Every structure is written in structure tokens, then in C-alpha cells.
């Protein structure tokens, strides 16, 4: 339930982290009394109704880079940024972001899933766009602080939801030429989410787009906003044709599958090989690399990262999209030119996809033990 308190908007506060934890423990009234504009009534919320929409949560992390170094960072209630009109993020797309989730476990504890991998991928995106990197330990600690400060927004264990964290790093400051920004902002906010694709763990259909989301030696492997701006029009066209999203082919030859909207692609051959495309213009999905390991070590499948020609779809009995937001979304069918190819079923989930999903999600919520270091306890 969303309650608007517009009209009584108080000034936002920033809190050093220690104070925040203390306030939650000892003086909840004062920590909560300045909540602004839109708050979610987390006590009376139907968690199963969550989709993938923006909801303002209580606190976000904010750190600034100036004169060669990052400051100590704060948690703030203010969900707006006041930046120079000359900011490179606005004109030249000098920005990158990440996405990861915090999960409520059966015993009430909270897990992050492989946050160090997101930190490393963000460092790689920063290197590609000449932005200062956030060290892994700073990134992971900031994630933990944001989760703790917004604990009431974590969907309960068993609801299928999670707290989605959105770290981002942008070039700001007075500037006009095409060069790196004089200043940068790193922030992490969070939103409680349910399924990304309508229906959750139900097969959905995709169409092959004739547009590209990235160039062969461009920024496809970096998580930068420009790739997503380029995907808005093809995504709209896919929705207009009643597909969940687009499949993008390799930009050089348009013959091999690369990405499924904002997720990676995988498929299972008739003789049980887990196959996923390899290409320098694909975003290296943390979920995909986790599934490669789980398929091999937990399900006993052979695995391959290789070319997946769009004309070879009949070699696969099951297919899916995988990512932090998509989790594992089974692909019912793919429209390519005039052909519509159905994999396992347009309505039912294939058994291998189901086992991969169960294994991955059970590790994320702590029901089964994952490989060393995958789960990071927040509390
Ligand atoms: C283009 C694209 N591919 C793949 C993924 C999946 O990556 P991950 O599993 O790290 O969330 C994402 C989401 O981050 C994405 O935006």
C-alpha cells in the first residue's frame, strides 16, 4: 500500500552510518519521523503483489568523488540529486550501474548474493568509461548499510520477492567538452521487487530484434546506460507485438544469439548440455556464471559457453533468460522472421530449468549451501 504525505514534506536528513543503526535500535520515532513524500506501509503490505516498480524506500547511500578521492559516504533520506547542468552523465552517458538483491532467509537473517561480483563488474564499467572505481570492500559495506537501513522493505521469506539494490556511478560537475567529468557521485538505492517478467516462473515468448543493443567492440560488456537507451525502442516494439522482450543477435553478423532483453540466454540441448552464448559484447551476467557452475557441480550437466546460431534452435529442448531481475525466466518460444520456435512448452516449465531455478533460489535464501563465498550475510 502506498501512502502519500505530499504537502507536509520535511527536510531530508543525512545520517552517518553508525548513527543510523543506533537510531533504529534506540529511537525509532526519530529515525522515521522525517520520512518524505511516498512511503510504503510495510506492516500491511501484500508482498505477493510486488512487480518491478520504483518505490521510495527510507535511505540511500551517497558518496562524492572530488579532487582525486571519494569521501566517506552517508546515508540520506533525500531521493533526489542536485547536479550541474554540464554533468557528463547527462550529455555523454558517462555513467554506469549495477543490480543485485538482498534476500530474507527462513531464520530471519538477510543474504546478499555475490555482491563482490557486482563490485568488480562496476569497476570494469568504470574503467571502460574513465570513471574512478569504488573498491570492492567499500561497495559491499555500502550495500549492507543500505539493506540494514531499509530492512522493513525486505519482502518476507517465501514471498518470492527480494530487496533490489541499484548502485550507480555518474559523472557530474561543471563541464561542456567531451572528456571525463571533474566530479563523480556513487549512490545505492533499493526497492522491494517481485517478478521482472509478468507471471514470474512462467514461460514467456521473445522476438528477435533487427536492432543492435551494442557494437562489436563497443560497450556491450559494460553495464552502462547507453546500452539500455538503445534497447528502449526495440523493447517497445516487442511489447506492441505482445512479446515479453527482444532477443538481440551479435551485432557483427546478426546470426548468433547474444542477449535476451536485460538478461543472458541459456539453453539445454537434447542430450543435457547447458549452453550459453559467448561474445565480448554480452554483459557478463553474474547469474549466468553462477548457473554455469550450478549446472556442472549441482546438476551434473556438461556446460558450454559458445556460439548459439539463431538457426539452430531445434537443438535445444529448453531455454531461458537469466539475470538478477529475471532470475530464471523460461523461454516459451522465439519469433525469428516468420518462424515461431517453441522449446519445451509455452505454458509449462521444463524440468532442467526448474531444477536450476530451485537450486539457485534455494542458495540465495540460504535453504541450501552454495559454493564458498557466494552468500554474504548482512545480519
Ligand atoms: C543486458 C543485461 N544482460 C544480462 C543481465 C544479467 O546480469 P546479472 O545476472 O548480473 O544480473 C543484465 C542485468 O543486470 C542485463 O542488464
Compact summary:
The protein is of the alpha+beta class and 379 residues long. The protein contains 8 helices and 21 strands. It catalyses: L-leucine + 2-oxoglutarate = 4-methyl-2-oxopentanoate + L-glutamate; L-isoleucine + 2-oxoglutarate = (S)-3-methyl-2-oxopentanoate + L-glutamate; L-valine + 2-oxoglutarate = 3-methyl-2-oxobutanoate + L-glutamate.
What keywords describe this structure?
single chain, 379 residues, alpha+beta, D-amino Acid Aminotransferase, Chain A, domain 1, D-amino Acid Aminotransferase, Chain A, domain 2, 2 domains, 10-stranded antiparallel β-sheet, 6-stranded mixed barrel, 8 helices, 21 strands, globular, disordered N terminus, binds pyridoxal-5'-phosphate
Which segments are poorly predicted (pLDDT under 50) over 5 or more consecutive residues?
Answer: 1-37
* CATH classification, class level of the largest domain: Alpha Beta
Largest sheet: 10 strands, antiparallel
Task: Please give the number of β-strands.
Answer: 21
Helix content: 10-25%
State mean pLDDT (0 to 100 scale).
90
Shape: globular
The tally of domains stands at 2
Along the chain, the helix and strand elements come as EEHHEEEEHEEEHHEEEHEEEEHEEEEHE
- CATH architecture assignment name of the largest domain: 2-Layer Sandwich
CATH 4th-level superfamily of the largest domain: Aminotransferase class 4, branched-chain amino acid transferase, N-terminal domain
Strand content range: 25-35%
State the CATH topology of the largest domain: D-amino Acid Aminotransferase, Chain A, domain 1
Number of helices: 8
EC number: 2.6.1.42
InterPro entries: Aminotrans_IV, Aminotrans_IV_CS, Aminotransferase-like, B_amino_transII, BCAT-like_C, BCAT-like_N, BCAT_family
Protein name: Branched-chain-amino-acid aminotransferase
Enzyme class: transferase
Amino acid at each position: 500500500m502506498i501512502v502519500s504525505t505530499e504537502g507536509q514534506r520535511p527536510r531530508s536528513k543525512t545520517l552517518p552510518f553508525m548513527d543510523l543503526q543506533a537510531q533504529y535500535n534506540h529511537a525509532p520515532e526519530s529515525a522515521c519521523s522525517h520520512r518524505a513524500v511516498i512511503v510504503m506501509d510495510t506492516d500491511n503490505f501484500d508482498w505477493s503483489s510486488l512487480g518491478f516498480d520504483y518505490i521510495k524506500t527510507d535511505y540511500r547511500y551517497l558518496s562524492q568523488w572530488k579532487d582525486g578521492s571519494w569521501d566517506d559516504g552517508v546515508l540520506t533520506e533525500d531521493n533526489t540529486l542536485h547536479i550541474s547542468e554540464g554533468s557528463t552523465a547527462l550529455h555523454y552517458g558517462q555513467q554506469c550501474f549495477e543490480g543485485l538483491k538482498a534476500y530474507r532467509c527462513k531464520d530471519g537473517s538477510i543474504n546478499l548474493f555475490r555482491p563482490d561480483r557486482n563490485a568488480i563488474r562496476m569497476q570494469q564499467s568504470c574503467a571502460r568509461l574513465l570513471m574512478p572505481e569504488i573498491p570492492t570492500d567499500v561497495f559491499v559495506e555500502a550495500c549492507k548499510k543500505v539493506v540494514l537501513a531499509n530492512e522493513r522493505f525486505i519482502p518476507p521469506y517465501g514471498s518470492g520477492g527480494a530487496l533490489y539494490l541499484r548502485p550507480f556511478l555518474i559523472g557530474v560537475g561543471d563541464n561542456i567538452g567531451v572528456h571525463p567529468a571533474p566530479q563523480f557521485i556513487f549512490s545505492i538505492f533499493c526497492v522491494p521487487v517481485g517478478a521482472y517478467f509478468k507471471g514470474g516462473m512462467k514461460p514467456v515468448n521473445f522476438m528477435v530484434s533487427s536492432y543492435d543493443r551494442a557494437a562489436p567492440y563497443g560497450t556491450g560488456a559494460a553495464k552502462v546506460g547507453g546500452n539500455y537507451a538503445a534497447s528502449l525502442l526495440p523493447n517497445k516494439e516487442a511489447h506492441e507485438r505482445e512479446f515479453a522482450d527482444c532477443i538481440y543477435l551479435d551485432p557483427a553478423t546478426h546470426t548468433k544469439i547474444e542477449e535476451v532483453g536485460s538478461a543472458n540466454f541459456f539453453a539445454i540441448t537434447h542430450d543435457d548440455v547447458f549452453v550459453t552464448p559467448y561474445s565480448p559484447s554480452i554483459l557478463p551476467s553474474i547469474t549466468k556464471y553462477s548457473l554455469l557452475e550450478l549446472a556442472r557441480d549441482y546438476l551434473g550437466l556438461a556446460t558450454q559457453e559458445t556460439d548459439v546460431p539463431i538457426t539452430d534452435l531445434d537443438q535445444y529442448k529448453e531455454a531461458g533468460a537469466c539475470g538478477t531481475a529475471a532470475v530464471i525466466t523460461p523461454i516459451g518460444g522465439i519469433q525469428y522472421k516468420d518462424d515461431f520456435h517453441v522449446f519445451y512448452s509455452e505454458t509449462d516449465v521444463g524440468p532442467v530449468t526448474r531444477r536450476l531455478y530451485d537450486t539457485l533460489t534455494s542458495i540465495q535464501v540460504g535453504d541450501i549451501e552454495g559454493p564458498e563465498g557466494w552468500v554474504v550475510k548482512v545480519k
